[in-house]
Structures are given as structure tokens and as C-alpha cells.
TrEMBL record:
It is found in: Membrane. GO terms for molecular function: channel activity. PANTHER family: PEROXISOMAL MEMBRANE PROTEIN 2, PXMP2 MPV17, PROTEIN MPV17. One of its GO terms (cellular component) is mitochondrion. This is Mitochondrial inner membrane protein Mpv17. It is a multi-pass membrane protein. Belongs to the peroxisomal membrane protein PXMP2/4 family. It comes from the Eukaryota. Its main location: membrane. InterPro entries: Mpv17_PMP22 (IPR007248). Pfam families: Mpv17_PMP22.
Length: 168
């Protein structure tokens, strides 16, 4: 049963990350359809399947045990958001900032340089979107829908992140 949950979240993340990358290329980067890098979209999609979806499912399940259920939904949601955005978001974003260019064939030294250049601005953008989204998520959504809620918000985040992490 748990394996099906991880697979479901992986598939959801794969579809949403793939959509985010496709939108990033075709709308934000304004590539003509014939120049769409389908392999790049496939790599971003695969990352959602094997890493992002399962990692978020595990994290949200773990996070749910950290905060007492004996308080209001709003207070609980705020506490979970603070833990999420201080303990999970920074290392998760750092891993993605390394893995995406890595699976695109960039060399280690160049990736490290790009992280030094871009990581703080990515995190600044993260904090413009995710604290509010996660407060709503953790306060109002049942745990079984929290990953999919976050992934729906992540369509927009993934457009930005894909564009930023695929800059050459």
C-alpha cells in the first residue's frame, strides 16, 4: 500500500514537473515548438518520478509527526510551514540545483559555480511563493492531498526553476 502511494506521488510529480518544463521552454523561453528540447523535459519529468514525488511524500509524512495535532489547524499549519521552509526547502533546493544541471551533462565545477551564483536568488524566490502556499497546504489540506496540492502550486515554481537551472 505504501509503495503505491510513493508511485502515485512520483507519477504526479513527474507529470507536473514535465508540464512545468514544457511551459518554461515554450512560453517563458519562447522556443518555437520545433526547438522544444523534449529530452530536457524527459529528464525533468524523470526527476519528479524518482526523486521529487517520493521525497515530498516521505517529508510530509515525517513532518506530520513533528507537530502536535492538539492545536488549531492554523497554528499547526504555521508550525509545519516554518519547519518545512527552514529545514527542508534549503537542502532540497540545493540538491535540485546540483542534480538538474548534472543530468543535463554539465561538469561538476561549472555546477558549483552556478550554485554560488544562483542559489540565494532561487531561495529568495522560494520564500516569495512557498511560505504562503505551504501555510494554506498544511492548514487546510488533509495529509493525503498535501503532496498533490504542493505539486499544483509547483507547476508555476517548476517553470521558474527549470528556466533558472537550465540557463547556459
Amino acid at each position: 500500500m505504501a509503495l503505491r502511494g510513493y508511485l502515485r506521488e512520483g507519477l504526479n510529480a513527474a507529470l507536473i514537473m514535465g508540464a512545468g518544463d514544457a511551459i518554461a521552454q515554450l512560453v517563458i523561453e519562447k522556443k518555437p515548438f520545433q526547438d522544444w528540447d523534449i529530452a530536457r523535459t524527459a529528464r525533468f519529468t524523470t526527476l519528479g518520478l524518482v526523486f521529487v514525488g517520493p521525497a515530498l511524500r516521505k517529508w510530509y509524512g515525517t513532518l506530520d509527526t513533528f507537530v502536535s495535532k492538539q492545536q488549531s489547524a492554523t497554528r499547526r499549519g504555521l508550525k509545519k510551514m516554518i519547519i518545512d521552509q527552514s529545514c527542508f526547502a534549503p537542502p532540497f533546493t540545493l540538491v535540485l540545483s546540483y542534480v538538474v544541471p548534472c543530468i543535463n551533462g554539465e561538469q561538476h565545477g561549472r555546477i558549483v559555480d552556478r550554485i554560488k551564483e544562483n542559489y540565494l536568488s532561487i531561495m529568495q524566490r522560494n520564500y516569495m511563493l512557498w511560505p504562503m502556499a505551504q501555510t494554506i497546504n498544511f492548514s487546510l489540506m488533509p495529509i493525503q492531498y498535501q503532496v498533490i496540492f504542493a505539486q499544483i502550486v509547483a507547476v508555476f515554481w517548476n517553470c521558474y526553476l527549470s528556466t533558472k537551472l537550465n540557463e547556459r
